[in-house]
Amino acid sequence: MQRSGHGTDLAVGDLTRAIEDFNRYYIRLPVVQKLPFTTLSVLDTLVQSGPKRLTELARAEQISQPGLTQLVTRLEHDGLVERRRDPTDGRAVLVHLTERGRQICQARHEDRGRHLLPLIAQLTPEERQSIAEALPALVRLAELGRQADQ
Fold first, then answer.
1. Below-70 pLDDT ranges, the chain
2. Which residues contact 39 (CB under 8 A, 6 or more apart)?
3. Residue limits of the HTH marR-type domain (predicted)?
């Protein structure tokens, strides 16, 4: 069991395994509209953080800038994103999510919820309560991770 070095009894190795195991299941849920992972990741990043410069988006997605530029061009062609001038720097461009892109993200979120509901119903009330109590900490952990990546 891997423990944190900050005086906590949180087993980081156990947490990592649990998140990885859940993610393996979660990202493979059947979906209404099949899109490549990188497409969904870019759309989700834009939902979470708002418009971004190509350089920021490439860094966030951990892909090369030429690869991201090609992807954004495809997404723009499909009507999922659009490029607009950065109002604070006329030389720069921001990638914005379109309403269609937002709808795809929302539909995927709702679809995943429909798949999780029957599984959650099989948990004990105590297990559901434990997950509910852990949500604020997991949200904060994700926020800290995003901040560290900036």
1. 1-8, 32, 149-150
2. 71, 74, 75, 80
3. 1-140
**Residue 9 and residue 74 in one domain:** no
Neighbours of 83 (CB within 10 A): 14
The enclosing domain of 136 has a CATH number of 1.10.10.10
C-alpha–C-alpha distance, residues 32 and 29, integer Å: 10
Q: Which residue has the tokens 């849920």?
A: 29
- Are 112 and 81 found together in one domain? yes
Per-residue model confidence as pLDDT tens digits over 16-35: 999 999 988 888 887 767 78
Say whether both 105 and 124 belong to one domain.
Answer: yes
Q: What is the pLDDT of residue 150?
A: 64
| Residue 40 belongs to domain spanning | 31-149
The sign of the CA dihedral 61, 62, 65, 71 is negative
For the CA atoms of the chain, what is the radius of gyration?
18
